[in-house]
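Morning run. Coffee first, then this:
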Amino acid sequence: QVQLVESGGGLVQAGDSLRLSCAASERTFSSYAMGWFRQAPGKEREFVAAIGRRGGITHYTDSADSVKGRFTISRDNAKNTVYLQMNNLKLEDTADYYCAANLEFTTTPNYKYWGHGTQVTVSS
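And here it is:
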Protein backbone atom coordinates (compact mmCIF):
# COMPACT_ATOMS: atom_id res chain seq x y z
CA GLN A 1 0.00 0.00 0.00
CA VAL A 2 1.46 3.32 -1.12
CA GLN A 3 0.34 6.43 0.72
CA LEU A 4 0.64 9.72 -1.11
CA VAL A 5 0.39 13.16 0.46
CA GLU A 6 0.22 16.28 -1.69
CA SER A 7 1.20 19.74 -0.53
CA GLY A 8 1.97 23.16 -1.93
CA GLY A 9 -1.41 24.27 -3.17
CA GLY A 10 -2.90 27.64 -2.36
CA LEU A 11 -4.44 30.86 -3.61
CA VAL A 12 -2.33 32.75 -6.14
CA GLN A 13 -2.79 35.40 -8.79
CA ALA A 14 -2.68 34.79 -12.51
CA GLY A 15 0.92 34.75 -13.68
CA ASP A 16 2.27 33.46 -10.37
CA SER A 17 4.06 30.17 -9.78
CA LEU A 18 3.51 27.27 -7.42
CA ARG A 19 5.35 24.05 -6.79
CA LEU A 20 3.30 21.08 -5.73
CA SER A 21 4.93 18.21 -3.88
CA CYS A 22 3.77 14.66 -3.36
CA ALA A 23 5.49 12.59 -0.71
CA ALA A 24 5.20 8.83 -0.88
CA SER A 25 5.39 6.41 2.01
CA GLU A 26 6.79 3.59 -0.05
CA ARG A 27 10.50 2.83 0.25
CA THR A 28 10.38 1.36 -3.25
CA PHE A 29 9.15 4.69 -4.61
CA SER A 30 11.52 4.37 -7.55
CA SER A 31 9.55 1.32 -8.70
CA TYR A 32 6.52 3.48 -9.48
CA ALA A 33 5.68 5.77 -12.33
CA MET A 34 4.02 8.91 -11.01
CA GLY A 35 1.35 11.15 -12.39
CA TRP A 36 -0.42 14.41 -11.66
CA PHE A 37 -4.10 14.89 -12.37
CA ARG A 38 -6.47 17.74 -11.68
CA GLN A 39 -10.19 18.19 -11.27
CA ALA A 40 -11.82 21.55 -11.70
CA PRO A 41 -15.25 22.29 -10.18
CA GLY A 42 -17.96 20.60 -12.20
CA LYS A 43 -15.49 18.83 -14.47
CA GLU A 44 -14.03 15.38 -14.72
CA ARG A 45 -10.58 14.56 -13.44
CA GLU A 46 -8.00 15.07 -16.18
CA PHE A 47 -4.44 14.03 -16.77
CA VAL A 48 -1.78 16.73 -16.35
CA ALA A 49 1.63 15.06 -16.42
CA ALA A 50 3.43 11.79 -15.80
CA ILE A 51 6.98 10.74 -15.14
CA GLY A 52 8.72 7.42 -15.41
CA ARG A 53 10.36 5.52 -12.59
CA ARG A 54 13.77 7.10 -13.05
CA GLY A 55 12.54 10.42 -14.37
CA GLY A 56 13.84 9.85 -17.88
CA ILE A 57 10.39 9.81 -19.43
CA THR A 58 7.85 12.58 -19.03
CA HIS A 59 4.57 13.30 -20.74
CA TYR A 60 2.19 16.22 -20.52
CA THR A 61 -1.42 16.68 -21.42
CA ASP A 62 -2.28 17.65 -24.96
CA SER A 63 -5.57 19.20 -23.93
CA ALA A 64 -6.74 22.56 -25.17
CA ASP A 65 -5.69 24.14 -21.88
CA SER A 66 -2.23 22.75 -22.38
CA VAL A 67 0.29 23.02 -19.60
CA LYS A 68 3.22 22.40 -21.87
CA GLY A 69 5.87 25.02 -21.43
CA ARG A 70 4.37 26.13 -18.13
CA PHE A 71 4.34 22.99 -15.96
CA THR A 72 7.27 20.69 -15.23
CA ILE A 73 7.05 17.32 -13.54
CA SER A 74 10.10 15.98 -11.76
CA ARG A 75 10.97 13.51 -9.04
CA ASP A 76 13.58 12.92 -6.37
CA ASN A 77 13.74 9.22 -5.63
CA ALA A 78 16.05 9.80 -2.68
CA LYS A 79 13.28 11.85 -1.07
CA ASN A 80 10.38 9.69 -2.28
CA THR A 81 8.84 12.82 -3.73
CA VAL A 82 7.40 13.94 -7.04
CA TYR A 83 6.95 17.59 -7.91
CA LEU A 84 4.86 19.69 -10.24
CA GLN A 85 6.33 23.11 -10.92
CA MET A 86 3.61 25.38 -12.27
CA ASN A 87 4.58 28.70 -13.82
CA ASN A 88 2.53 31.47 -15.36
CA LEU A 89 -0.64 30.14 -13.78
CA LYS A 90 -3.93 30.88 -15.49
CA LEU A 91 -7.46 31.10 -14.17
CA GLU A 92 -8.26 27.79 -15.88
CA ASP A 93 -5.59 26.04 -13.83
CA THR A 94 -7.85 26.35 -10.80
CA ALA A 95 -8.53 22.80 -9.62
CA ASP A 96 -7.81 20.15 -7.04
CA TYR A 97 -4.52 18.51 -7.96
CA TYR A 98 -3.88 14.85 -7.26
CA CYS A 99 -0.76 12.76 -7.51
CA ALA A 100 -0.93 9.08 -8.30
CA ALA A 101 1.41 6.08 -8.41
CA ASN A 102 1.41 3.06 -10.64
CA LEU A 103 3.85 0.32 -11.47
CA GLU A 104 3.31 0.91 -15.18
CA PHE A 105 3.74 4.29 -16.88
CA THR A 106 0.42 5.59 -18.15
CA THR A 107 -1.34 8.82 -19.03
CA THR A 108 -4.76 7.38 -18.29
CA PRO A 109 -6.47 7.56 -14.87
CA ASN A 110 -5.68 3.87 -14.32
CA TYR A 111 -3.30 4.53 -11.43
CA LYS A 112 -3.40 2.17 -8.49
CA TYR A 113 -2.67 4.64 -5.69
CA TRP A 114 -3.95 8.18 -5.24
CA GLY A 115 -3.38 11.05 -2.86
CA HIS A 116 -6.18 13.13 -1.38
CA GLY A 117 -5.37 16.21 -3.40
CA THR A 118 -4.27 19.79 -2.86
CA GLN A 119 -6.30 22.78 -3.95
CA VAL A 120 -4.96 25.39 -6.34
CA THR A 121 -6.96 28.57 -6.87
CA VAL A 122 -5.83 31.16 -9.38
CA SER A 123 -7.42 34.60 -9.17
CA SER A 124 -7.30 37.51 -11.60
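The first strand starts at residue 4 and ends at 7. Good start to the day.
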